Amino acid sequence: MTTQAEYLKNYDPRLFPSPLVTVDSVLFTVHGGKLCVLLAKRANHPFLDQWGLPGGFIDLQHDASTQATAERKLREKTGVVPPYLAQLASFSGPERDPRGWSLTTVYFALIAHADCQPHIIDVSDVAWVPLDSLQTQQLAFDHQTIVEAALQRLRQKTAYSMLPVYCLPAEFTLSQLQEVIEIILSHTVQRKSLMRRFDASEMFEETGERVATGARKARLYRRKAGVDMRNFSRNLMVE
Amino acid sequence: MTTQAEYLKNYDPRLFPSPLVTVDSVLFTVHGGKLCVLLAKRANHPFLDQWGLPGGFIDLQHDASTQATAERKLREKTGVVPPYLAQLASFSGPERDPRGWSLTTVYFALIAHADCQPHIIDVSDVAWVPLDSLQTQQLAFDHQTIVEAALQRLRQKTAYSMLPVYCLPAEFTLSQLQEVIEIILSHTVQRKSLMRRFDASEMFEETGERVATGARKARLYRRKAGVDMRNFSRNLMVE
DNA sequence: GGAATAGTGTCTGTAAGACACTATTTC
DNA sequence: GAAATAGTGTCTTACAGACACTATTCC
């Protein structure tokens, strides 16, 4: 019979075989009329020189959680932490990494292209890749599957929340929001329905300014400080 | 410059410090008018003799995924694999396990009490605990937080799907379904609304039999083979 | 027949879809 | 004023809530 203190004193984590653990992120943005995902060219084996999701190992000394790991890795690649970052799921198995049994906890994130672009310009190993060019490209590990799962989640959430605002800069117009939503859903939405939900969400406030994106000047909005995502009890129609 | 083959030949996973990785499950059932969760009394340090979620280490030789680990561990505790088992999320950090930085991938599952009970009867280290008695009880690790997250997910899904059927035996009546839904939501639901959704889901078929649970005999239903969960585009009203 | 549970009919309420309408701005 | 985009009014539609009604079964 040992006490917990004695047990912990003698505990050696290397005695237990452990899977290889990583954290990866699917960072989306909308740019040039297309939904894009951030990819990084791998600088190490395995899958050296192939494109894959930005991610890496947990820093056990400094990371307070896998979310912290995801934030750190994204900051390394883009210079910023995206305004929306949430856990997607974990993917695991003996085959997905040639080094052996592995587990990756995946986060999915959104950012405005403009808020990220200055940092990744001229960096040849990080790129925004439109989702429709991913069909042909061969991604490292099971990252193709992961991106598809993230896309599905993004579309689901877009149907019952205002999540896509995180693809926009701090100040934005309703038309810009409508555009990113339609790009994400690959589907037009009723402007009137969008406006009703936009108001009902109580997540946004007018800046007071108006900008001319098209003909008539549009109101500028920003997210209210400290309010969290409103989930609607009905979905927008998809198909 | 090494090839990937050379790299893999020389790769030693022990060179990378790794978090402690476990898999845990939140298995729900409804029994005695209450939502219950399966707990196991810990046979090892840390938290020896305290109650916690059933789970454990991945068997790198035999488990094809963390889902397989969850299934194996639940089969060890209950003798069966529950009819519904899906990933909830992963929880991680340096503080949640006294042995050090740890990560647990958590699954949440549903089963009919009758389909499980024969196996855990007379086993003193596994028990169904009503959720309302969990407030007082001190669970191992961060398992209290995890159960709360699982409960939230269960309620969400109950609002837009027929998920609670997995708390019922293979053949069940509408009244039984209504009962488990109301227990999960802590809230009555309109029988008529439930019936409309039940029909619309196209997930079920009549067995042809009728049983007397109350006065008038009720139709028996079973899940159609091979159909998957239908998600409704509206939520049931909660509050 | 009365009590209890199973199941139906149907009206109301809410929020999305559809789409015509008005408003503002640039040319 | 024409064209284009921003924003409104309002009718329709889908489906959940409410609740009274009928049906079946046991005593």
UniProtKB/TrEMBL annotation, chains A, B:
Per the UniProt record, one Pfam family is WHD_NrtR
Q: Which cofactor does it need?
A: Mg(2+)
Q: Which organism is it from?
A: Serratia fonticola
Q: Taking every annotated instance into account, which residue ranges of this chain make up the domain Nudix hydrolase?
A: 18-154
Keyword terms, alphabetized: Nucleotidyltransferase, Transferase
Q: Supply the SUPFAM superfamilies for this chain.
A: Nudix, Winged helix' DNA-binding domain
Q: Does the keyword Glycosyltransferase apply?
A: no
Keyword Cell membrane in record? no
PANTHER family for this protein: ADP-RIBOSE PYROPHOSPHATASE, SLR1690 PROTEIN
Entry protein name: Bifunctional nicotinamide mononucleotide adenylyltransferase/ADP-ribose pyrophosphatase
GO: which molecular function terms?
Answer: nucleotidyltransferase activity
Q: What's the source species' lineage? A: Bacteria, Pseudomonadati, Pseudomonadota, Gammaproteobacteria, Enterobacterales
Record-linked InterPro entries: NUDIX_hydrolase-like_dom_sf (IPR015797), NUDIX_hydrolase_dom (IPR000086), WH-like_DNA-bd_sf (IPR036388), WH_DNA-bd_sf (IPR036390), WHD_NrtR (IPR054105)
